[in-house]
């Protein structure tokens, strides 16, 4: 399925996104670091009969030309995006870093969702440990690792980009993140991860953008730390991938869920990349939230 390319105004520019159409409750889909709106294509295809899914390209990603702009701007944009869409109490779904983004935007009071769905993106460290972990991401060693593993910031010619996309599609079944994903979807996400810069293509985000996002302010009210959940009053569903980034910390995830009413833990047999590798399972979870949580969708209809 293909959606309509859209632009959503934010504080200092616009975010790119894909409106997949449909009618009913608004569902905002927010990708993780290194991904983009295309990662939600197969999930959205299963939602449009019941609701209205829209996926964003966060700053520094996909077709959004805005840079990251610091450690908070990317999640603060979510409030502006919901306002631009004219939605009242949407369901917010975020994967990985996007899971923290929708959580932080809600915790800051920038949006009042009908429900939050955090997909293998729960934050579990306390503030001190989180600050140390994010500082470690700004080292030269970490930058080299990101370049080697994900090609962040890599510049490519037309031919190099074409060959790279073809290789990613061909090798998807053996990739630790993409195994199980539809090969065509891997190609779509990979292509959208590059932006034109002069005669070259640049893989986004760059390591400089990662450094900007991870330069946390120790005095900030909201940090990617476990205390952010104390600020939530809306229903929260945490989707935990059995082979994902947080599988070894299941008891801590369980503690976050058990800390307040109206929270649920759903475990799926998947690697970290749930939206691409288990779209049917994830769509079913989101549809359950839409049906159970959005009692008055009048403000979300087309």
Main sheet specs: 8 strands, mixed
Mean of pLDDT: 95
The strand count comes to 11
Q: How many angstroms does the end-to-end distance come to?
A: 20 Å
* Global outline: globular
- The succession of helices and strands, N to C, reads EEEHEHEHEHHEHHEEHEHEHH
Helical stretch count?
11
- Taken as a percent bin, the fraction of beta residues is 15-25%
Q: Low-confidence parts, pLDDT < 50 over ≥5 residues?
A: 296-302
Gyration radius, rounded: 18 Å
The side-by-side strand order for the widest beta sheet comes to 1-2-4-3-5-6-10-11
Helix/strand-derived class?
alpha/beta
Please provide a brief summary of the model.
The protein has eleven helices and eleven strands. It is an alpha/beta fold and about 300 residues long.
Overview of the molecule:
The structure is a single chain. This protein has 11 helices and 11 strands. It is an alpha/beta fold and 302 residues long. A hairpin with a 2-residue loop joins β8 and β9 (200-203). The two termini are 20 Å apart.
């Amino acid at each position: 399925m293909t959606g309509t390319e859209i632009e959503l105004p934010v504080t200092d520019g616009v975010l790119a996104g894909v409106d997949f159409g449909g009618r009913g409750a608004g569902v905002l889909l927010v990708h993780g670091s290194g991904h983009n709106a295309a990662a939600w294509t197969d999930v959205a295809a299963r939602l449009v009969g019941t609701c209205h899914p829209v996926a964003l390209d966060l700053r520094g990603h996909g077709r959004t030309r805005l840079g990251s702009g610091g450690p908070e701007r990317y999640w603060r944009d979510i409030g502006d995006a919901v306002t631009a869409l004219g939605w009242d109490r949407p369901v917010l779904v975020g994967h990985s870093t996007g899971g923290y983004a929708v959580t932080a935007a809600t915790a800051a009071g920038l949006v009042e969702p009908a429900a939050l769905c955090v997909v293998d993106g729960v934050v579990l460290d306390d503030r001190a440990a989180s600050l140390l972990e994010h500082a470690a991401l700004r080292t030269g060693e970490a930058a080299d690792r990101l370049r080697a593993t994900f090609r962040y910031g890599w510049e490519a010619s037309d031919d190099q980009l074409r060959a790279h996309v073809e290789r990613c599609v061909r090798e998807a079944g053996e990739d630790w993140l993409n195994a199980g994903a539809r090969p065509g979807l891997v190609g779509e996400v990979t292509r959208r991860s590059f932006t034109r810069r002069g005669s070259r293509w640049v893989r986004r985000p760059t390591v400089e953008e990662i450094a900007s996002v991870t330069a946390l302010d120790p005095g900030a009210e909201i940090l990617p730390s476990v205390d952010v959940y104390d600020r939530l009053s809306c229903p929260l569903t945490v989707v935990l991938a059995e082979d994902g980034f947080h599988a070894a910390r299941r008891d801590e995830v369980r503690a976050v869920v058990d800390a307040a009413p109206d929270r649920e833990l759903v475990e799926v047999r998947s690697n970290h990349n749930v939206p691409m590798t288990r779209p049917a399972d994830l769509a079913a979870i989101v549809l359950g939230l839409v049906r159970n949580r959005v009692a008055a969708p009048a403000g979300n209809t087309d």
